[in-house]
């Protein structure tokens, strides 16, 4: 009977060892899978943000070009008025900055 008990204990110990190894592998898979999923979603988020930033940049660039064109046309149509306005803005800015 003691030899059978001993062999049963050895079998149980072997099973426990196998379970530990299997649990360690499972834990590694879960960690790596979670990391890969998080990495993938992070890459997707960065790509979306990059596309959104590019779209905003292009929109602002177009608006800036339109504003510059509108100001250029106005200055060409009314050069004297534009010079007087620029002089006035410079005078007021100079007064404010000298204080």
Compact summary:
The chain is an all-alpha fold and 99 residues long.
Main attributes?
2 helices; rod-shaped; 99 residues
Largest beta-sheet details: none
What is the CA-CA span between the terminal residues?
Answer: 105 Å
Number of domains: 1
How much of the residues is beta strand, in percent? under 5%
- Large-scale geometry: rod-shaped
Q: Give me the number of helical elements.
A: 2
Description:
The longest helix is centred in the middle third of the chain and has 76 residues, at 2-77. The chain has one domain (2-98). It has helices at residues 2-77, 79-98. The termini are far apart. It has 99 residues and is mainly alpha-helical. Helix 1 packs across helix 2.
What is the topology?
Layout lengths: L1 H76 L1 H20 L1
């Amino acid at each position: 009977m003691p030899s059978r008990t001993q062999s049963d204990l050895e079998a149980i110990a072997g099973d426990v060892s196998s379970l530990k190894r299997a649990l360690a592998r499972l834990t590694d898979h879960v960690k790596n899978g979670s990391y890969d999923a998080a990495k993938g979603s992070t890459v997707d988020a960065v790509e979306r943000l990059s596309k959104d930033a590019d779209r905003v940049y292009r929109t602002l660039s177009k608006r800036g070009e339109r504003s510059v064109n509108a100001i250029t046309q106005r200055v060409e149509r009314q050069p004297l008025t534009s010079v007087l306005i620029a002089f006035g803005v410079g005078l007021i800015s100079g007064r404010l900055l000298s204080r």
